[in-house]
Design brief:
heterodimer; A: 279 residues; alpha/beta; Rossmann fold; 2 domains; six-stranded mixed beta sheet; four-stranded antiparallel beta sheet; globular; B: 438 residues; mainly alpha; ABC transporter involved in vitamin B12 uptake, BtuC; 71% helix
Chain lengths: 279, 438
């Protein structure tokens, strides 16, 4: 296995008496797609919130091996530093675009830190200095590049909130890509997509890993996405990691099948997963 | 259009009759004490008399009026629906309309600017008109300042009059105690207001929406109460008087004196209107500067960040944006612009007291921003015009003046729930940047 980009060690997150995440450890290998699956309420989104600084974990550590800044402890960074400094960027289960702003503006806002620096506390921007103009042109170029690759370019000037659900998901991914992520954390990117759209999503995710050398961490319910695109899967149940391995190993893991379906229907689940793999 | 209306009219009329009957019933209930019963002086004693026929007529008028109103509304609705059905591709049409809206709006903007520029020339001997126009411009400036905080950054600030007060008192004190002139005090007072903006922004960073509204409301009251009670510093309820007026690059506006005055320098006959018109142009220039600054900032990273924060603060954090700095910058800029407006107010009035900076003032400024359409610069201008002019027009109606004011506000919000101008112009376009898909 390649060098892990992210190492989660003995992470625990308690809310009062409830341990939403209980002593979880996980290595996320660089340049691969790691899936986090589990039944509803297993603690998947809580895990993302701990990674990205939205929650402060009760105990445990999250270490990121950053190529330029060395080892960073994500659990001690505020959420905006997780994105800015550590380049760990996330999307949300319930879409969070900026609905009244156009798709293009959404992607430009994502490059705020670079542009703000170039605008020198807005001074260079107000004066319209060439250095700021160049930075803005570069930001626009990057945004247009991602919009083209994600098939959104003809929607660039439309308010994000006016787009259909599936497209808003893509806008959110495109926006996250504009932050130049090292690790991209996607929270149920296929939720609400039709089969064709989720097929396109699979292709996109594979391309990001192969062409952009991104590392992906993925929470997903849609088994066709999970089984087809993930290189590595971690299964959570009641805040505990109950299994980890390749998609093939996971489908045959009796613990996982039990967690999802209970004992009796285990056989069906196995058949269903195999069918999905073939598809 | 009668052919259109006759479709499915049978059910339409029963609906309308029921509705009108309901309204007539309410009118009857209200009318019994208000119209049906009356008192009359009968030889020194008060007697209760009845006026049933009048009440009957009243209810009948309400019934017919309501019926007619419903009929007209339905007619309008149906005509609109037919028109929409005829316009094939809805999306294409709306896109075109949005684009047209932008063009029309900028035309209106230039028109308003043109009127503003020539107004004092046309009304050069009408002090009343120029004074009202100056008041409108003060509110425009206050509205533009608050628009940054409420309209762009989405932070509900109900204490904007506090910054207005800080600016006014800063100038009044600097001028009366240290002999500062208007132009030197203007930036310094703006800076002082900025500091106050940061002071209120800092502790309220974690608050949003209604909670923030309460904190800012409290802050506004604190400033006012301090000004009322700290007599040594602010003159207490008596305020500060004899605040020096701004002069024209060193030339005072006075009848005659040892030094050259504005009138003598330009070889004009002295007229008190000179100063009034000069003040008008000063506030016009300050407002235009404000507008240029805010319009420019809106197209810069910080402006887009303000709007993004209004849309979704959590998403901003996830994209690596420091929400703390973004919020503080919005507060600071809004406060500074409020402070500058305050300096002008103090210089124009020559006298200020805490009475001018009550919660009522904050509420009117907020109403201007909301009524104008959050974030719309031109909307603020139109709303300021409406909110300043309605009470003025209402002077003829004396005690019904505030009633008229309230009714107008309610009607505008029913007519345009998102404000007079809710159109949002994107800060940049792919089409404009030379995209082939335009």
């Amino acid at each position: 296995m390649p060098e892990p980009l992210l190492s989660v060690e003995r992470l625990t997150m308690r809310f009062g008496g409830l341990a939403a995440i209980d002593d979880m450890s996980l290595d996320v290998p660089a340049g691969l797609i790691t899936g986090v699956i589990g039944p509803n309420g297993a603690g998947k989104t809580t895990f993302f919130n701990c990674l990205t600084g939205f929650y402060k974990p009760t105990t445990g550590s999250v270490r990121l091996n950053h190529p330029r800044h060395g080892a960073l402890r994500l659990e001690s960074l505020p959420s905006h530093e997780v994105a800015r400094l550590a380049q760990v960027v996330r999307t949300f289960q319930n879409i969070r675009t900026f609905p009244k702003m156009t798709v293009l503006e959404n992607l430009i806002v994502a490059q705020h830190n670079v542009l703000q620096q170039a605008s020198f506390f807005s001074l260079a921007g107000i004066l319209g200095l060439p250095s700021y103009r160049r930075a803005e042109a570069r930001a626009l170029e990057k945004a247009v590049g991602w919009l083209t690759r994600l098939g959104l370019i003809d929607k660039a000037d439309i308010p994000a909130g006016a787009l259909p659900y599936g497209m808003q998901r893509r806008v959110e991914i495109a926006r996250a890509l504009c932050v130049d992520p090292l690790l991209l954390c996607l929270d149920e990117p296929a939720a609400g997509l039709n089969p064709r759209e989720s097929g396109e999503l699979n292709e996109l995710l594979r391309r990001l890993v192969e062409e952009e050398r991104l590392t992906l961490l993925l929470i997903e319910h849609d088994m066709s996405v999970v089984m087809n695109v993930c290189d590595h899967i971690c299964v959570l149940n009641y805040g505990r990691k109950i299994a980890e391995g390749t998609p093939r190993e996971i489908q045959n893991d009796p613990q996982v099948i039990k967690a999802y379906l209970g004992e009796e229907e285990a056989g069906d689940m196995r058949v269903e997963m195999k069918e999905v793999m073939k598809a | 259009m009668p052919r259109l209306v006759s479709i499915s009219d049978a059910s339409g009329w029963t609906e309308r009759l029921k509705d009108a009957a309901g309204v007539a019933l309410i009118a009857l209930l209200l009318g019994i004490p208000m119209i049906g019963l009356t008192t009359a002086d009968q030889g020194g004693a008060l007697e209760v008399l009845t006026r049933w026929p009048l009440l009957g007529a009243f209810v009948a008028v309400v019934f017919c009026g309501r019926l007619l109103l419903r009929y007209l509304l339905d007619l309008l609705k149906r005509r609109r629906q037919t028109r929409e059905r005829q316009q094939g591709e809805v999306t294409a049409v709306t896109m075109k309309r949005v684009w047209l809206d932008g063009r029309v709006l900028s035309a209106i903007g230039w028109l308003v600017l043109g009127v503003a520029l020539v107004l004092p020339v046309v009304f050069s001997d009408n002090r009343y008109v120029v004074d009202i126009a100056t008041t409108v411009l003060i509110y425009v400036m206050l509205g533009w300042g608050l628009n940054v905080v409420v309209g762009l950054a989405g932070l509900l600030d109900m204490g904007h009059a506090a910054f207005y007060a800080v600016g006014a008192y800063a100038y009044a004190l600097l001028a009366t105690r240290f002999g500062w002139g208007f132009w030197e005090a203007l930036p310094v007072a703006g800076l002082i207001a900025t500091v106050f903006g940061l002071a209120i922004g800092w502790p309220s960073l974690r608050l949003r929406g209604d909670y923030l509204a309460i904190v800012t409301l409290g802050f506004g009251e604190i400033i006012r109460v301090v000004l009322v009670n700290w007599t040594d510093f602010s003159g207490g309820p008596n305020g500060i008087s004899q605040i020096p007026r701004p002069n024209f690059f060193g030339l005072p506006f006075s009848p005659s004196g040892d030094r050259p005055t504005f009138a003598s320098f330009f070889g004009l006959e002295f007229s008190p209107m000179h100063r009034i018109i000069f003040l008008y142009y000063v506030i016009l220039m300050l407002s235009l500067l404000t507008n240029a600054l805010v319009a420019r900032l809106r197209r810069l990273p910080i402006g887009r960040a303000w709007e993004a924060m209004r849309e979704d603060e959590i998403a901003c954090k996830a994209l690596g944006m420091d929400v703390t700095k973004i919020k503080l910058s919005a507060f600071a800029l809004g406060a500074m612009l409020g402070g500058v407006a305050g300096v002008f107010f103090a210089a124009r009035q020559g006298f200020i007291s805490p009475e001018s900076f009550t919660f009522n003032e904050s509420a009117i400024i907020l109403a201007i921003v909301v009524l104008g359409g959050m974030g719309s610069q031109l909307g603020v201008v139109l709303a300021s015009l409406v909110l300043v002019l309605i009470p003025e027009i209402g002077r003829d109606f004396s005690e019904y003046r505030m009633l008229l004011f309230g009714t107008a506000m309610i009607l505008i919000m029913i007519w345009r729930p998102a404000g007079i101008l809710s159109h949002r112009e994107p800060t940049l376009r792919h089409a404009a940047a030379g995209g082939e898909h335009a």
